[in-house]
């Protein structure tokens, strides 16, 4: 049968291998690309009338396959997904939209998937698959494909998607071979007990070496070389074997048709016209339009107003049956009611709730403030709407003396933060200043109390209540590199206070290293640094780990003696002076000369660790207009006013917005 269930011994390696993120040059450029292009962000209603008549009752569980595509970033998941949708006629070939399932504008601009997407396909086959044996006649099988993100920040999306699947295609680039996130995703699928089908993709590349990749898959995951499919999602070679393998190797969903309805809520988003749309997987029983359902977690009851599948747009079917994945529209007013991982069931029945998902863990916190203070309500609205479509962000209100009213947001990682920021600007037209990202530290005070500090400015400087101990979060990082780069990578990790835990050759040319690193040290600039010292060949992933005791201090930035709360950071004592110097130098470059002298200082408590001075400017802008032309004077005053709008005033010093953005890159 060739099922790819990896052997138990692999579990022992679990803790030596987690994984994610490759930082090659291409990806870096993709992340920086920014052509303005606008696409709709969510599935629309299917206008094709033929598709409206799909009869799902013809698809009992044995004629259903649910699978996910998982891979390291850029190994070709979305391209492969598109080709499979074309092959089954779900979308038209050459429909002109790149990466059909990457629907968000930010996904298309950056060439990355940030949101898992589901699409239902119908495929005729003649294979002797378990449960489908109809005298060699072609039978139609309903296949749900879930495309998942590749970046470490979005691995939460991957684990959620896997809950609705019985199998996964583990896609590996034929030239790059196994990368850090291949390892992470393999273990996510393995621990979810999924059937894993290895797909070695991009075999059209001149540097492709499928045999080497097969050997890696065998040695690292115990996957049989003969079971690997060889494909090129670009040229189409080998694609005809993918869906037959899915049908033959992946088991049918295990639910019970005759049981009471149990649905797993996979995801939700807000649609302007329909309200909240929930993506669901029917685990047991059946759901029909008009049914009354309740949520186990939220305790509310709703009427099902619309139900259907994503084919690939929203396609009403009137029912969803055991093993099927689709969408429902109920009277939910806010996505806060649609708790991801919740169990939905018929209101009159009593059911055992499904296990659900672990809540998302916030790794990075940052303050988000309106660039113009009067836009607070608009930003509030934009954040509320966006969190409807990205429930993994935590939001609480906060205020800053420098920036006014704003929000403290928790993100899954730095890219997640960046993407959220970009979506606020692109999808809601919000202009936002973000403060230096920080990680959640724990501080103990002399009265024995312990607090988690998500905002450095909130750390007390109270002489009556001294800090007695502090802890910082750490990660278990996995780095895979060609062996010639081992030296520089070891140096980088020790500069970042890392502790080496493992060093293994995965084949004759590649090394896997495992480090414990403080999360703070990888939040800013670690990726870029790692990428640049390995010519883009390193791949990197991390799993969150325990807190470690650490000598932490609060580093304040002062302008003419006044602290700028939005620029405060928490840092390891040994690094405070260097960071203070970098921050002060950076600010000097970005703050313009003003009518008076400006002293910029970095300080730990009352001890100044770095200082720069910007000397006073003698004349104002109008002094350049030697009398005369009044319109010219007006223009200059207007320009000055415009410039001021983009400034934040701290005491008497005007700080341009760019200064805040630039500080993100230093700390
Ligand atoms: N030569 C070649 N290029 C491919 C093939 N499949 C995908 N690509 C290219 O590889 C790049 C990445 O492909 P994607 O499908 O976006 O990769 P992904 O794994 O979905 O990426 P993330 O969603 O960001 O993790 C794109 O430029 C594709 O055109 C292939 O078979 N051969």
TrEMBL record:
<feature type="binding site">
    <location>
        <begin position="147"/>
        <end position="151"/>
    </location>
    <ligand>
        <name>GTP</name>
    </ligand>
</feature>
<feature type="domain" description="Tr-type G">
    <location>
        <begin position="62"/>
        <end position="254"/>
    </location>
</feature>
<feature type="binding site">
    <location>
        <begin position="201"/>
        <end position="204"/>
    </location>
    <ligand>
        <name>GTP</name>
    </ligand>
</feature>
<dbReference type="InterPro" id="IPR000640">
    <property type="entry name" value="EFG_V-like"/>
</dbReference>
<keyword id="KW-0648">Protein biosynthesis</keyword>
<dbReference type="InterPro" id="IPR004161">
    <property type="entry name" value="EFTu-like_2"/>
</dbReference>
<dbReference type="InterPro" id="IPR035647">
    <property type="entry name" value="EFG_III/V"/>
</dbReference>
<dbReference type="GO" id="GO:0003924">
    <property type="term" value="F:GTPase activity"/>
</dbReference>
<comment type="similarity">
    <text>Belongs to the TRAFAC class translation factor GTPase superfamily. Classic translation factor GTPase family. LepA subfamily.</text>
</comment>
<keyword id="KW-0496">Mitochondrion</keyword>
<protein>
    <recommendedName>
        <fullName>Translation factor GUF1 homolog, mitochondrial</fullName>
        <ecNumber>3.6.5.n1</ecNumber>
    </recommendedName>
</protein>
<dbReference type="Pfam" id="PF00009">
    <property type="entry name" value="GTP_EFTU"/>
</dbReference>
<dbReference type="InterPro" id="IPR035654">
    <property type="entry name" value="LepA_IV"/>
</dbReference>
<feature type="binding site">
    <location>
        <begin position="71"/>
        <end position="78"/>
    </location>
    <ligand>
        <name>GTP</name>
    </ligand>
</feature>
<keyword id="KW-0378">Hydrolase</keyword>
<dbReference type="GO" id="GO:0005743">
    <property type="term" value="C:mitochondrial inner membrane"/>
</dbReference>
<keyword id="KW-0472">Membrane</keyword>
<dbReference type="InterPro" id="IPR000795">
    <property type="entry name" value="T_Tr_GTP-bd_dom"/>
</dbReference>
<dbReference type="InterPro" id="IPR031157">
    <property type="entry name" value="G_TR_CS"/>
</dbReference>
<keyword id="KW-0547">Nucleotide-binding</keyword>
<keyword id="KW-0999">Mitochondrion inner membrane</keyword>
<dbReference type="InterPro" id="IPR027417">
    <property type="entry name" value="P-loop_NTPase"/>
</dbReference>
<dbReference type="InterPro" id="IPR005225">
    <property type="entry name" value="Small_GTP-bd"/>
</dbReference>
<dbReference type="InterPro" id="IPR013842">
    <property type="entry name" value="LepA_CTD"/>
</dbReference>
<keyword id="KW-0342">GTP-binding</keyword>
<dbReference type="Pfam" id="PF06421">
    <property type="entry name" value="LepA_C"/>
</dbReference>
<dbReference type="Pfam" id="PF03144">
    <property type="entry name" value="GTP_EFTU_D2"/>
</dbReference>
<dbReference type="GO" id="GO:0005525">
    <property type="term" value="F:GTP binding"/>
</dbReference>
<dbReference type="GO" id="GO:0005759">
    <property type="term" value="C:mitochondrial matrix"/>
</dbReference>
<dbReference type="GO" id="GO:0097177">
    <property type="term" value="F:mitochondrial ribosome binding"/>
</dbReference>
<dbReference type="GO" id="GO:0045727">
    <property type="term" value="P:positive regulation of translation"/>
</dbReference>
<comment type="function">
    <text>Promotes mitochondrial protein synthesis. May act as a fidelity factor of the translation reaction, by catalyzing a one-codon backward translocation of tRNAs on improperly translocated ribosomes. Binds to mitochondrial ribosomes in a GTP-dependent manner.</text>
</comment>
<dbReference type="InterPro" id="IPR006297">
    <property type="entry name" value="EF-4"/>
</dbReference>
<comment type="similarity">
    <text>Belongs to the GTP-binding elongation factor family. LepA subfamily.</text>
</comment>
<dbReference type="InterPro" id="IPR038363">
    <property type="entry name" value="LepA_C_sf"/>
</dbReference>
<dbReference type="GO" id="GO:0006412">
    <property type="term" value="P:translation"/>
</dbReference>
<dbReference type="Pfam" id="PF00679">
    <property type="entry name" value="EFG_C"/>
</dbReference>
């Amino acid at each position: 049968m060739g099922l790819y269930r990896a052997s138990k011994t692999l579990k022992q390696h679990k803790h030596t291998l987690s994984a994610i993120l490759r930082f090659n040059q291409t990806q870096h450029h993709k992340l920086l690309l920014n052509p303005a292009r606008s696409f709709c962000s969510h599935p629309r209603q299917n206008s094709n009338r033929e598709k409206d008549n799909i009869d799902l009752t013809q698809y009992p569980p044995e004629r259903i396959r649910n699978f996910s595509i998982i891979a390291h970033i850029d190994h070709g998941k979305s391209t492969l997904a598109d080709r499979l949708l074309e092959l089954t006629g779900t979308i038209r070939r050459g429909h002109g939209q790149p990466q059909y399932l990457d629907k968000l504008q930010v996904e298309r601009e950056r060439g990355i998937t940030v949101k898992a997407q589901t699409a239902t396909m119908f495929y005729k086959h003649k294979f002797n698959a378990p449960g489908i044996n109809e005298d060699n006649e072609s039978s139609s099988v309903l296949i749900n494909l879930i495309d998942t993100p590749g970046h470490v920040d979005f691995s939460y999306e991957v684990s959620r998607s896997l809950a609705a699947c019985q199998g996964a295609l583990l896609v590996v680039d034929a030239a790059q071979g196994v990368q850090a996130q291949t390892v992470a995703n393999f273990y996510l699928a393995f621990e979810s007990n999924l059937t894993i089908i290895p797909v070695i993709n991009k075999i059209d590349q001149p540097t492709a070496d499928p045999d080497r990749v097969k050997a890696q898959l065998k040695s690292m995951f115990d996957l049989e070389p003969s079971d690997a499919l060889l494909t090129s999602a670009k040229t189409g070679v080998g694609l005809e074997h993918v869906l037959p393998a899915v049908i033959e190797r992946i088991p049918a969903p295990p639910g019970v048709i005759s049981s009471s309805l149990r649905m797993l809520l996979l995801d939700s988003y807000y649609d302007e016209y329909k309200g909240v749309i929930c993506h669901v997987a029917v685990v047991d029983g059946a759901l029909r339009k008009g049914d009354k359902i309740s949520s186990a977690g939220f305790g509310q009851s709703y009427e099902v107003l619309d139900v259907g599948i994503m084919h690939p747009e929203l396609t009403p079917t009137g029912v969803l049956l055991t093993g099927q994945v689709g969408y429902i529209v109920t009277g939910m007013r806010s996505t806060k009611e649609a708790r991801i991982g919740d169990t939905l069931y018929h209101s009159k029945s009593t059911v055992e709730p499904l296990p659900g998902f672990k809540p998302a863990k916030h790794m990075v916190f940052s303050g988000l403030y309106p660039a113009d203070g009067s836009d607070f309500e608009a930003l509030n609205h934009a954040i509320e709407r966006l969190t409807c479509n990205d429930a993994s962000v935590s939001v609480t209100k906060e205020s800053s003396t420098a920036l006014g009213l704003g929000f403290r947001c928790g993100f899954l990682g730095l890219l997640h933060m960046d993407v959220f920021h970009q979506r606020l600007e692109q999808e809601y037209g919000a202009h936002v200043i973000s403060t230096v990202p920080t990680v959640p530290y724990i501080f103990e005070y002399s009265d024995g109390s312990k607090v988690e500090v998500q905002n450095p400015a909130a750390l007390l400087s109270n002489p009556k209540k001294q800090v007695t101990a502090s802890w910082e979060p750490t990660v278990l990082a996995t780095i895979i590199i060609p062996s010639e780069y081992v030296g520089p990578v070891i140096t980088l990790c020790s500069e970042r206070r890392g502790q080496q835990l493992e060093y293994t050759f995965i084949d004759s040319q590649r090394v896997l290293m495992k480090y414990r690193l403080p999360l703070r040290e990888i939040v800013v600039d670690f990726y870029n640094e790692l990428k640049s010292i390995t010519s883009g060949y390193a791949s990197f992933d991390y799993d969150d780990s325990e807190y470690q005791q650490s000598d932490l201090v609060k580093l304040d930035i002062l302008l003419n003696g006044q602290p700028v709360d939005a620029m405060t950071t928490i840092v390891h004592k040994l690094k405070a002076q260097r960071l203070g110097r970098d921050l002060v130098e950076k600010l000097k470059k970005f703050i313009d000369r003003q009518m008076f002298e400006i002293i910029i200082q970095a300080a730990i408590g009352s001890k100044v660790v770095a200082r720069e001075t910007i000397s006073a400017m003698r004349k104002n802008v109008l002094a350049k207009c030697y009398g005369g032309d009044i319109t010219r004077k007006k223009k200059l005053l207007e320009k000055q006013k415009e410039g001021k709008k983009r400034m934040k005033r701290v005491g008497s010093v005007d700080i341009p917005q760019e200064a805040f953005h630039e500080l993100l890159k230093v700390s």
